[in-house]
From TrEMBL:
GO CC, alphabetical: membrane
Alphabetical UniProt keywords: Kinase, Membrane, Phosphoprotein, Transferase, Transmembrane, Transmembrane helix, Two-component regulatory system
Pfam families listed in its UniProt record: HATPase_c, HisKA
Localization per Swiss-Prot or TrEMBL: Membrane
MF (Gene Ontology): phosphorelay sensor kinase activity
Protein name (database record): histidine kinase
Species the sequence originates in: Candidatus Sedimenticola endophacoides
Limits of the HAMP domain: 423-478
InterPro entries: HAMP_dom (IPR003660), HATPase_C_sf (IPR036890), HATPase_dom (IPR003594), His_kinase_dom (IPR005467), HisK_dim/P_dom (IPR003661), HisK_dim/P_sf (IPR036097), Sortase_His-kinase (IPR022510), TCS_sensor_his_kinase (IPR050428)
Length: 702
């Protein structure tokens, strides 16, 4: 008689062995984590080298623009820095509106009982001064006194655009609105020559002194200015000579005005600066231009609620293990007018240097690198590049997160295959059919790879065959879709070499006029080619963006109204009447993308419209219940055979090429965006053949 079978322990079962095989996948993140730890130091060294190269490249770019860095004062301590501001300042004698700039105030004076804090700004053709005076005893001008030295006063010594010295003094009877009085430039006489109504301000008392806010037309001031104050403790005649404090070298010599250069800022804007800040300093360390920022917004979570929760849990675990990059740190250099430090001093001495420093709140480490800007006579300035080392930690966290995500995905896939092994045959065939249909759109585009089954039977073989076919088709489609991007990428480097070579060649003083004309033509050609490559990359980026865009519910009518208002500013001289019933047109989609499509249609309409005629924007309900958005312009008619061809890539009907290259990508991008929202786009001639109407039909959101 056969012995009954002894129950097999679970550790000897196939299920246990399959579980061990599945758990072996977890070795991948551990190995990857160890590797990331080893490579962190190399990443830091690479970041330092890259930052130094960036500073060096910027300095090399600025070598030929010495005139823009020639504003450095002979005596930096006597200079006045003009901070650019975004709006006018209300002259009320208080420093509330100067808040972000107050750390840059320049203190003048060595005694606590008498001193001057000075701050200057510029906006809209005016120069603003905030003069904060420490004075225990304020003496106002006696009523009826013709002299301006019998009281406390504020004095401006400036050099106008003609190089002439002008001296203005403010001595008020009481706090309130003040105007300047012009006196002799030598200050030997305090008798006013005339009132200068264009220099206005407000004088207000405060505990321990007074504050004066002044507004000066920019055209009154050349390149030099100093602020003097006079303190007199008694208004009686013959009460002694007022005590003076000046921002210049002396009361008769104005200091240098230093203002940021818009040209330098525009040049820096062309450099890559993601999470990077660039400074251009003159030889005294004053900031002439800056671009970029050190802080960035936290990455957004995308997906449904379950995916968001999973991502947050995973990131929380990784932050505990690796540390969390904190971009909400204190930046002590924001808005600074003058930079110091060992790396800046080294660059101004003629050598590049790197340095790491902790932020004041110790939440981040900042890496900075400098490089001198050489001129014909030596160092004329420096470039400072800064970047937070949080980027390395972010890259490490992202790589680890991706590694854990892939591991969990593989682990889940393996378990799913083990659980799906006993599924019904009909279910496998149905799933294969559904996956195949989901991977291919109605117009034949491959949305993604088809996951092949691991089984070795006929259905598994068929699944792998389908996956291989779709993969090869997808690779071919991606090759075609990426051709423009690859072409732009391959041509960008040689085009940059050509442009830089032409720029260097233009600096040759030995060139004659004919050679310079040839150089100008070559530069124009390279710029046109660069614009072509930029637009090709724009089309490729949009096609990739459509695959990742989140949808939301919004009112298309409100979007159209806002867009129409902006077009009046973008296209002066063109009117944009809107014909839309007062109702809501709800749509589910991406408002930014639809705004971009509308911009393309409006830009095309402006290019072809007859001058003096409006561009009509319309919005109403379509016959099928959708939304009908139209853009109409008066001008040349559209050939009937091109009514649909005009929306294809690389199709342009412009009769001339003036004003820049036109690749026929604008309407093509509008078509992609419209189809992404489940709609259609068409073009038709107006009934009287004196214009064209473009119509987008979109599905309405209930």
């Amino acid at each position: 008689m056969a012995q009954p079978a002894t129950p097999r322990p679970f550790r000897h079962s196939i299920r246990f062995r399959l579980l061990l095989v599945s758990l072996s996948v977890l070795l991948i993140p551990w190995v990857g984590y160890r590797y990331l730890q080893e490579t962190e130091s190399y990443l830091r060294q690479g970041q330092e080298q890259l930052l130094s190269n960036t500073a060096r490249a910027a300095a090399q770019m600025l070598r030929g623009h010495g005139r823009l860095l020639a504003s450095a004062p002979d005596t930096p301590a006597h200079a006045i820095y003009l901070h650019p501001i975004d709006g006018d300042i209300n002259l009320d004698g208080y420093a509330d509106e100067w808040g972000p700039l107050l750390p840059n105030r320049r203190h003048i004076g060595n005694t606590p009982t008498l001193g001057l804090d000075l701050l200057a700004a510029t906006h809209g053709g005016y120069l603003y001064l905030l003069i904060d005076v420490n004075d225990e005893q304020i003496t106002y001008r006696p009523p009826g006194s013709p002299e301006l030295d019998q009281s406390d006063f504020v004095e401006l010594l400036l050099e106008n655009s003609h190089g002439e010295l002008r001296r203005y003094r403010i001595a008020t009877l009481a706090p309130g609105w003040v105007r300047a009085e012009q006196i002799a430039p030598t200050a030997r006489s305090a008798h006013p020559l005339r009132t200068e109504p264009r220099i206005q301000g407000e004088w207000q008392e405060r505990p321990g002194g007074y504050t004066v806010e002044l507004r000066i037309p920019r055209y009154l001031v050349g390149r030099r200015l100093s602020v003097n104050i006079g303190d007199r403790d008694t208004a009686a005649p013959g009460g002694g000579t007022p005590i003076r404090i000046t921002s210049g070298g002396d009361t008769d010599t104005p200091g240098t005005l230093i203002a940021p250069s818009g040209e330098l800022a525009a040049m820096l804007a062309g450099l890559p600066r993601e999470n990077l800040r660039l400074w251009v300093l003159d030889r005294a360390g004053y900031v002439l231009a800056s671009q970029g920022q050190l802080q960035r917004e936290e990455d957004a979570f995308e997906g449904d609620r379950l995916q968001i929760t999973a991502n947050r849990l995973l990131r929380g675990l990784l932050h505990l293990a690796l540390g969390r990059p904190n971009d909400a740190f204190s930046d002590d250099l924001t808005g600074r007018s003058r930079l110091t430090g060992p790396e800046v001093a080294a660059a101004l001495a003629g050598r590049g240097e790197s340095r790491r420093r902790a932020t004041p709140d110790a939440r981040a480490m900042i890496l900075s690198a400098t490089w001198p800007i050489e001129g014909p006579s030596g160092v004329i300035g420096a470039v400072l590049a800064e970047q937070s080392t949080n980027q390395i930690l972010s890259l490490q966290n992202r790589a680890t997160e991706s590694l854990f995500g892939i591991t969990l995905l593989l682990f889940a896939l393996l378990l799913s295959i083990l659980l799906a092994f006993a599924s019904r045959l009909a279910g496998r065939i149905r799933r294969l059919r559904d996956r195949t249909e989901e991977a291919v759109t109605a117009d034949g585009r491959i949305l993604g790879p088809l996951s092949a089954e691991r089984s070795r039977d006929e259905i598994g073989d068929l699944s792998r065959s389908f996956a291989g076919v779709l993969e090869r088709l997808g690779e071919y489609n991606r090759y075609l879709e990426a051709m423009a991007s690859r072409l732009a990428h391959e041509l960008r480097t040689p085009l940059t070499l050509v442009s830089s070579s032409l720029e260097n060649l233009e600096q040759d003083p030995a060139l004659n006029d004919q050679q310079r004309r040839y150089l100008t033509r070559a530069r124009e050609g390279s710029e046109r080619l660069g614009l072509i490559l930029h637009r090709m990359r724009e089309a490729t980026r949009l096609e990739q963006l459509l695959q990742q865009t989140a949808m939301e519910r919004f009112d298309l009518g409100r979007l159209l109204s806002i867009a129409a208002e902006s077009y009046h500013a973008v296209f002066p001289g063109v009117t944009f009447p809107v014909d839309a019933p007062q109702r809501e047109y709800w749509l589910r989609g991406a408002p930014d993308l639809l705004s971009q499509a509308l911009d393309k249609l409006v830009g095309n309409a402006v290019d072809f419209h007859t001058p003096g005629t409006p561009i009509e924007l319309g919005l109403d309900s379509a016959v099928d219940g959708g939304i009908r958005l139209s853009v109409t312009n008066r001008g040349p008619r559209l050939p009937p055979e091109m009514a649909q061809e005009v929306f294809n890539s690389m199709v342009s009907l412009r009769p001339h090429k003036g004003g820049g290259p036109h690749l026929g990508l604008g309407l093509y991008l509008a078509r992609l965006i419209c189809e992404f929202h489940g709609g259609s786009i068409a073009a038709e001639n107006l009934p009287d053949d004196d214009g064209v109407r473009f119509i987008m039909t979109l599905p309405r959101e209930p």
